[in-house]
Amino acid sequence: MALVLAIGIVVDDAIVMLENIVRRIELGDTPLVAAYKGAKQVSFAIVATTVVLVAVFVPLIFIKGITGVLFTQTAITLASAVVISSFVALSLSPMLGSKFLKKNMNKSKIVIKFEKFLKNTTYLYRLSLISWINKKKIIISFLAGTLAITIFLFNFAPKELIAPEDRGAFFVIVKAPQGAGFNFTKNKAEDIEKLLLPKVGQGEYRKLIMRVPGFGKSAKQVNSGFIIVLLEPWSKRDRHGVKIMRESFGQISKVPGVLAFPIMPQGIRTGGIESPVQFVLLGNTYEQLIKWKEEIKKQARKNPGLTSIQDDFDLNKPQLNVQIDQKKAADLGVSTEDIGRTIETIFGSKRVTNFTFDGKEYSIILQGDIKDRKEPDSISKVFVRSQNNGKLVSISNLVKYKEEGKSPFLARYNRQKAVTISARLVGDYSLDEALKFLVGVVEKNTPDAKIAYKGESEEYKKTNNELYVIFALALITAYLAMCAQFESWRHPLTIMLTVPMAILGGLLGVLVVGSSLNVYSQIALIILIGLSAKNGILIVEFANQLRKEGKNIHTAIIEASTIRLRPILMTSLSTIFGVLPLILGSGPGAASRLTVGITIFGGMLFSTFFTLYVIPTIYTIIGKNSQRIDAVEIELNKQLKK
């Protein structure tokens, strides 16, 4: 994905360089002189845009965790591509321009018509700019409104770790009641499989793979099952995999006696195949945690955006506590060891020896028949031999037993007693909304409870919190990099005002296609900081050059904006067209690529248009009382001549 983005970005420096050389040839310079003077004119702008882009990418390297790997790879790839393209534009492009560009080159009719159209557009832009540059209050109000709308949309947009992807397969998780045997779970899993089998080979379902018990943590739990539903290739079906999965839930839920639900695996794995919502309650005692989690689950079930709500601390695992009457057993001559080993062998199992037949070895295991191990009363059928008289004694006369429910395990999180509440999301209900809802429930109903997160929820919270820090660092590093190059804090501030417009355009693009703020859109928004600053740098830097030639600030900024219109349009269009394959692509990873593509597409489209009017106006406001960029140099030369 980073390589596709780089295609539209790396050509920008070469475009700026060659456009300026061509402009000077059109003004009458020879190709060699035009290459020399043109390169000298725009070299600062190219270096400045490269430094800003690299400065924006550097903070991405410091993100930790699973998503940090994704950010780091993108940052290193794009930063390397930009640095190399800048070097090529400053060295190879002027040389090639001086050799291959000629005066009065033959032009086709299409090129002539396009040049005429571009000249008319430039003329109309100049007229409109002269009109708007004096409407400072309107421009400032527009900027303030843009910032307010950006903040609102940032809070309004749905947020999640990654966009739901069509992975070409989905899983069906089957959970039978605690204490259910292998055969019960297998039969229920087969019932679910029978509901899905008729669809195999009908255009959407390709193959079903079932396993009892399940995978991962459930591999040793016979009350769990796992079905892999492989879908047909993307080119052979019309519907998105997520829609097919959601439709299957209606059939899967018809099977009674088990909890079964489908889940689509995502590109970023966050610790097993779990529900996206993993909300952890921490407390001092399990009794306290039971009260809290029941209240929270009660409120969560009222939320239509959540389904399959469960926790990992249900007292539903049947357990038979057997207490031996030591005195009575001793009187009858039966040892505690004999009672324990007999119960273990009949109700559990015991490997006694091996049997070899036809070159193969088989284990001999003693165990009671399955029908005699289902009911607690079957213990009355078990006998042990008395050491006093050799007679058989019923174990039921020597023990007392009580059936009770226990939790399968006592969970802890960060060394504290914990209960994890998990849930799936319904429809377009986002992970951010779900977690905020649960936090609100805790604050209202169980304020003493401490909370934490697991799995996808934990990774989302980490990434979401780091985003604000990384975004701020990207803005600061970009601003400081420009301050060092421009030797001024005013001009970089003018350029940085393009960022809110780019972010607003990116957010609008995300909302238009129905996507969300996730890892991929966050990457795109950070990239937009550098991309949007490029247009401002081209205008402001050239305006400073014209002021060095003695022109006043008003004339300089209008002329700079008019002259730089063509390279700004060319570089912006190259970036916009460069992301079109991400937007129009389909197949594996299409949702992630769409999110990145539409964010950059919307951001560049929106910021490019308004930058052409906002930057010149703000430049005249902020730089009104500023000196020429070479004022210090002029003063130094004066003092040296004295």
Give an account of the 3D structure:
The chain has 642 residues and is α+β, with helices and mostly antiparallel strands. The chain starts with a helix and ends with a helix. The chain has three domains: 329 residues, Multidrug efflux transporter AcrB transmembrane domain (Multidrug efflux transporter AcrB transmembrane fold, Up-down Bundle); 99 residues, 2-Layer Sandwich (Alpha-Beta Plaits); 90 residues, 2-Layer Sandwich (Multidrug efflux transporter AcrB TolC docking domain, DN and DC subdomains). The chain contains 19 helices and 15 strands.
State the secondary-structure class: alpha+beta
Poorly predicted ranges? none
* Fraction in helix: 55-70%
- Supply the number of helical segments: 19
Quickly give the CATH architecture of the largest domain.
Answer: Up-down Bundle
Average residue pLDDT:
85
For the biggest sheet, the summary is:
5 strands, antiparallel
CATH first level of the largest domain: which class? Mainly Alpha
Number of individual domains: 3
Q: How much beta, percentage-wise? A: 5-15%
CATH fold naming of the largest domain: Multidrug efflux transporter AcrB transmembrane fold
By CATH's scheme, which homologous superfamily of the largest domain applies? Multidrug efflux transporter AcrB transmembrane domain
Number of strands: 15
Shape assignment: elongated
Radius of gyration: 35 Å
Distance between the first and last residues' Cα: 60 Å
